[in-house]
Design goal:
Blueprint: E1 8-11, H1 16-28, E2 37-40
Parallel strand pairs: 1-2
Length: 67
C-alpha cells in the first residue's frame, strides 16, 4: 500500500466477517498511504486482476493457540 502498487485490494476468506474486519483495520490506515480501495469480497472480484496473492496456513486444532 505504501508504494502504491495496487489501486484496489480485495480480501477473501472463508470467514467473511474476518475478511471484513481485516479490511476495516487496513482502511483505518489509509490516510498515511496513497489512495487504495480495500474491501472484503469474493473470487469474482479478482476477475481481470494484474496481481493475485494467495496465502494459507495449516488449520488450527481445537484449543490450539495461534503462534
Amino acid at each position: 500500500m505504501i508504494r502504491g502498487i495496487a489501486s484496489e485490494i480485495v480480501l477473501i476468506d472463508v470467514d467473511k466477517k474476518r475478511a471484513e474486519g481485516e479490511a476495516l483495520d487496513l482502511n483505518h490506515g489509509l490516510s498515511f498511504v496513497r489512495p487504495v480501495k480495500i474491501w472484503a469480497g469474493d473470487h469474482s472480484d479478482c476477475e481481470g486482476a494484474g496481481i493475485v496473492v494467495i496465502t494459507a496456513r495449516a488449520a488450527q486444532k481445537p484449543g490450539e493457540p495461534r503462534a
